[in-house]
Amino acid sequence: MFSHKINIYIICTLLLYIVVPVYAQVAKEVQYLSGSDNEHTVEWDFWITGGRQAGKWSKIAVPSHWEQQGFGSYNYGRDYVTYGKNFRFHEEKGIYRHTFEVPANWKNKKISIVFEGSMTDTEVKINGKSAGDIHQGSFYRFKYDITDKVHFDKENTLEAIVSKMSADNSVNNAERLADYWIFGGIYRPVYLEATPKAHIAWTAIDARADGTFKSNVYVENIQENSTLRVMLKDKEGHVVGTQSVKLQPSDSVKLVTLSVGQPDLWTAETPHLYHAVFTLENDRGENYQTTERFGFRTIEVRQGDGIYVNGVKVKMKGVNRHVWWPETGRSVNPRLDLNDVKLIKEMNMNAVRCSHYPPDKSFLDYCDSLGLYVLDELAGWQKAYGTPVGKKLVKEMVMRDANHPSIVLWSNGNEGGHNKELVDEYAKYDLSARTVIHAHHRPGNAINGIDGNHYEDYYSTKKILEGPNIYMTTEFLHAQDDGGAAAGLADIWELHWEAKLGGGGFIWNFADEGIVRTDFNGTIDVNRVNAPDGILGPYRQKEGSFFAIKEIFSPVHIKLKKLPADFDGNIEVENRYHHTDLSACTFAYKLVRYQPPYADANGIRTEKEYDLNAPAIKPTEKGTLKLNLPEDWKAYDALWLTATDPHGEEIYTWSWRIRDNAAITKDILPVKTATTVELTEDSVHYVLKANGITAFIAKETGLLADLANEYSMKLAFRDGPLLIDGEYTLKGVKTTSAGENKVVEFDFDGQLDYIRWTMLPNGWLKLDYRYDMHGKRPYAGVSFNFPENYIITAKWLGNGPYRVWKNRLQGVTLNTWENMYNDSRAGIGPWEFPEFKGYFSDVSWVQFNTTQGKFLVATDQEDMYLRLFDFYGISGPKHYPELPAGDISFLDAIPAVGTKLAMGINNRPGVNGPAGEMTVLDQPVSRTLYFYFGIPRGEKENTQFVMPEENILTD
């Protein structure tokens, strides 16, 4: 009986093999001739005609730019302004040679050589024979069929002659004479492809949100009746749809359609991906297979309304990005591409414009998988490709990129570089017929219902948003140095968010385009004001705007700036996701206490953390986040709230004060030692002394003139409080006692009312002042002098660790921070962030560590800005006021910063919105500062401070 069962099994198995044909799975084979990226290169023989190392054979790493390998000459694109028609780089050519072998099993297959990118005109020869027409255009994949030119029994020789400038002037105009670094060489990989003679050449997919799947499948060399099978798989590999169609020998393209029920949809928030497996079969068991990744989504431009993804209007929170790395220029690798996508997502952006050319394919792969809306752009920097070459390059770009679900729009050139004869070319290769736009800087160039006009200000943006077109600005808030980017962004973003026709926009630019110059010992060159345009430094160092953008673009939108006196734990929240309910996010809050000034550590001293129930708030709607506060919550210094997205990434952490500055100052005043306060005078000073500290106050001005501390070096902190930008004259002086304290008060006529100095027995020097300055002011407050070269660190309790501007107050957290002195300048270097110098907001106290010892300054009142030394916002024409007098300032108002393109006078930052306007002072301002010039005896290692029984804050 058992044997009988075995025989039946064997017979059935044999019948199965007879009935079902066995197909050998064949896929495209690839053999790299170069390395795969800028970190994995292969040496080829190389000769260059001009510049460094010209006229001799040597070796070069491929892929690379020859300038970064020590060959040729550097030029920034705008050099043509200087050299004109005699532009010397027309003559710079590189000759590449490389030998390779072809696998024997590739016989009877089609063999192609593929260049992913070469700058600029590229002539290719195989074994001395031309592979085809010279390719023109730097940023596009091109290939040649070399089946009849290769040997299988001996080595093959590849020769590529690459001209840095093109013989086609329209190519030079479109991509070489541009506002970016221009390089030469084979900078992306080169490889061989082998396929069967009959094969699938490429596919164009259109997968819609309703589950409809269509694909144009382009086939080659079909010699017999065949079958084309399409199988769709989800991310787990489950088959969700299949379809088969018959092919005739005459077929070159076949449309395949099928439908999937309720697919998981692709958006930037939910980047669900599928795979389409295309199989070409014939009756003889030959089988060729290729796979494409795609997403189901529907992109619509509803003219006079908005841009829709899967039936939902979306607004672009975007950035422009060059393909860039300092050592290797535009030759990069997937790891760098992945990091850039993660950084863009970290800023809570949902979109990227590929300026001003198509990027590496791996970048688009990561946009697909992590979720970013992409504008893929044909090169054309203010001038366009000619029609013949332009048609070829559109075809190359769209054929390579059409199946990326992340690409939502095609951009047909930049700022006037639009050849309108190319607009209809995109749909020839893009089955989904995405909308073609123009990224432009002149009014009147709207196309297909979208206006992408560049660098409009707040007020002109309001006007454009009235219609008739959707306004999606493809460049705005030019981020040269520390200007632009997030400065003014909050105001302009609110316009787009609230307006029916607001499509959002793309900040210029992602990272400073700084190149490591191999002709200047590795110096990083940003071409002065031309290329330091990044939110990040060239090595992706995060500037202050990075974190401000993260807050402004947060999809969890919270307007609360200060906790109200009757705060009950309820915080109003707006859901600014387009496709995600807030219940998919997670929330937690902390109650924190901060380290005091003389503690060895910074940051939080103690904390309690509580999870929250995420509220169910639909996209674009508002609701309430409820914090169940413990009874002792007011005993803490601050409240921190963190939102985390459905993928486990932090959206943002907000912080609010609980205890005010008066309470914090009272806690930190040390009292372990005290002496009798002495008040004396000489011919020019009032002299206040206590606990080893002596302050000399100038009789004629009321300013601190000198300091002495018997326990440490003499301090050079002096010449304040100097009222910034005010006029006043001394009216009178009086000296008094207030309990154990000694007081010297100076009264003034004019905009300064008084200065009052009070010495306390423990050595604290208290300063009270009041001023009355009406009208619009760029800044307001007082300054002191202190030599910059004496500073080592600054430690403070306040917002940080990054500096702020009046129109870029976001992106900072209330904590105790300490920055080491540096002279870093955003956009110029050394790109050491956070910058030491600048305006810092909501400061309670600051401790200076200097070559003369430490000293501490604290305030009773809220909203004090600290200014540290001389710094700038943007180089060139200044779009912010000159800095206040002095070196260290304690301010009640600070200026905004402009952008490179907000030119002119009269406080130009104001053109980018109300936050950029000067502060209006309409009532007197009073402030109290406390100074301790040194570390009090017995306090150096202490983190706890004991208060006296009496109130030492009383005059």
TrEMBL record:
Gene Ontology CC: one annotated term: beta-galactosidase complex
Gene Ontology biological-process annotations: lactose catabolic process
Annotated catalysed reactions: Hydrolysis of terminal non-reducing beta-D-galactose residues in beta-D-galactosides
Molecular function (Gene Ontology), one example: beta-galactosidase activity
Glycoside hydrolase family 2 catalytic domain sequence ranges: 300-519
A Pfam family: Glyco_hydro_2
Required co-factors: Ca(2+)
EC number(s) stated in the UniProt entry for this protein: 3.2.1.23
Glycosyl hydrolases family 2 sugar binding domain sequence ranges: 58-196
Alphabetic keyword roster: Calcium, Glycosidase, Hydrolase
Record family assignment: Belongs to the glycosyl hydrolase 2 family.
Subunit structure: Monomer.
Protein name per its UniProtKB record: Beta-galactosidase
Species in which this protein is naturally found: Sphingobacterium corticibacterium
